[in-house]
Fold this sequence. Notes:
Layout: E1 2-6, H1 8-11, H2 22-38, E2 44-48, H3 51-61, H4 70-96, E3 101-103, E4 110-113, E5 116-120, H5 123-130, E6 134-138, E7 140-144, E8 148-152, H6 154-165, E9 169-174, E10 192-193, H7 195-198, H8 215-228, E11 233-238, H9 244-250, E12 255-258
Parallel strand pairs: 1-2, 1-9, 2-6, 3-6, 4-7, 9-11, 10-12
Antiparallel strand pairs: 4-5, 7-8, 11-12
Helix pairs in contact: 2-4, 2-9, 3-4
Amino acid sequence: MILLKLGGSLITEKDQPETPRLATIRRLALEVFEARRSQPDLRLVIGHGSGSFGHHLASRHQTQKGAESRQDWQGFADVWASANHLNRMVVDALRQAGVPVMAFPPSASALTEGGQLIELAHEPIRFALDHGLVPVVQGDVAFDRKQGSAIVSTEQVLAALVEPLHADSLLLAGLEAGVFADFPDNRTLMSKLRPEDVSEIRLGGAPGKDVTGGMAAKVNKAFELLRGHPSLEITIFSAEPPDSLRSALVDEPYGTRLVL
């Protein structure tokens, strides 16, 4: 059981508002199809970031900090619409490639409290998997019990699915080949990253607007998840080179694996 995240910087131009990388999205969709064709029993949930679609508007409206006024809630709806627009592109590309996908937007199934994800409907996703479908989740807005509104990252959503779906692997696909020991020169890729290494290296920030954090946040959240699920394999890798995603799904991904 694989959980795959397609990073926002991979599928959008993060410094250009609402600009998809359509050729990349279509290529990735074809690689998912090819991986499933070679391994028909592959159980896969795909999550994708919002990139330049959700983050720019969320940053403007501060949706992740809550909503009270009518203007705040209009901003909440605008962020949802923008994120949903990108989700539609991803879902359409996967379907056109022959992947039987269904979207499960967190805005309709998640609840947060103080910005922390506390509820996520997972049983419908499990039903979809049991019948050979590929669920697609995303970073999204969410209703929050304390502050009204929040943003849930794709990593938060996928983390909430690890236990109920009995996931074996979490693949974090982005532009970067992994974690480098010499950022920003990026000459020395770390094949393994341990918690004690984090304080000794510099982790990159987020390109463009990103209300959920960049590489540092990604690594810290991944280690937090790994501590709760030590048997989970978590790998950060680049899906930018052609065939890299297909290879990661059916073989061993080339990148940085997080270990305790």
